[in-house]
Write a structure and sequence with these properties.
The complex is a heterodimer of chains A (about 230) and B (about 50). Chain A is mainly α. Chain A has a domain at about 20-85. Chain A has helices spanning about 5-20, 25-30, 35-65, 75-85, 95-135, 150-170, 175-205, 225-234. Chain B has one helix and no strands. The chains are: A mainly alpha (about 230), B mainly alpha (about 50). The interface of A and B includes residues 6, 7, 137 and 191 of A.
Chain lengths: ~230, ~50
């Protein structure tokens, strides 16, 4: 069992947050998914045990090759691959397959990180567009690419903001601290969003429901059908 | 969220780290709230003018 400390609680909250969140991505990508309800439901059931297994195996692998206090928290995967595959003494002229395999794996991991970042940017770039649809920010953000239908202007703004925050975070700090600063700030901002999201049903209840039959005053609403009225009166 | 203010890596000044995280999160959310407040106020004004 890990020691109960602020750092271990911090780790626990990060792992739990990663494990139990990201449901909001359903809302972002559902419109672009065929049969979203079925596909996303199935994908969650398939992926959840796989993610748990990957977490357990990765943690085991890292701790097999690196002491817990020496784990590189910015990029532990590259660290464990380098430790596992590199550094052996070989006869002169023979091929170091371990080194080649290790470097190939690090390259594949880097590509996976880039793909992951692309998904995050794709998700985030939709948010200014939606805010502009709701007329909270200028309609300039709603312009779509004529061929691909992607929100290009939102994308540009999000990428520039990302670059600016990366520079700001690394100002006067090392790579490890800058990464931690960015990751932690995004965790906290995401946590605030989740607090607001969960506060809606708790504080507002069904008053703002998109389904008229769930609103408390639906009996008096003129646009509600007879079927809804009868459902309300039950 | 409070636990996140404690750095999990070695940093030169933990208090500065906590301050940076706290101020960033607070600042971004205040900017978001201001945009929302300004947008809804403008929309309400436009609707009342149209009526």
């Amino acid at each position: 069992m890990p020691l109960l400390s602020l750092i271990s609680l911090n780790f626990f909250s990060k792992i739990a947050f990663n494990g139990f969140t990201a449901l909001e991505q359903v809302a972002v990508f559902a419109g672009e998914t065929r049969d979203a309800a079925r596909s996303i439901f199935l994908s969650a059931w398939i992926v959840a045990p796989l993610i748990a297994l990957i977490y357990i195996l990765m943690t085991g692998s890292i701790l097999s090759y690196t002491r817990a206090d020496q784990v590189d928290l910015v990029n532990p995967i590259a660290q464990v691959i380098a430790a596992a595959f590199g550094g052996g003494e070989l006869p002169r002229g023979s091929v170091d397959w371990g080194l080649i395999l290790g470097r190939a794996t690090i390259l594949a991991g880097t590509l996976a990180f880039i793909a992951q970042a692309a998904v995050y940017i794709a998700e985030t770039s939709r948010l200014p567009m939606v805010a502009a649809w709701d007329r909270l920010i200028p309609a300039w953000f709603t312009r779509l690419h004529p061929r691909y239908g992607t929100p290009t202007r939102s994308l540009i703004v999000i990428v520039l903001l990302g670059v600016a925050f990366s520079f700001l975070a690394s100002f006067g700090t090392g790579a490890s601290e800058a990464f931690q600063l960015l990751a932690t700030s995004s965790f906290v901002c995401c946590g605030v969003n989740y607090l607001f999201m969960f506060a809606i049903p708790l504080l507002v209840g069904t008053r703002m429901s998109l389904r008229p039959d769930l609103r408390p005053l639906c009996l008096s609403a003129p646009h509600v059908s007879a079927e809804h009225r009868s459902r309300c009166s039950r | 969220m409070i636990f996140n203010l404690v750095p999990i890596v070695d940093v030169a000044r933990p208090w500065a780290f906590a301050l940076k995280v706290g101020c960033t999160a607070l600042g971004i959310n205040l900017i978001g709230a201001a945009i929302y407040w300004h947008g809804t106020r403008r929309e309400a004004g436009a609707q009342s003018n149209a009526a």
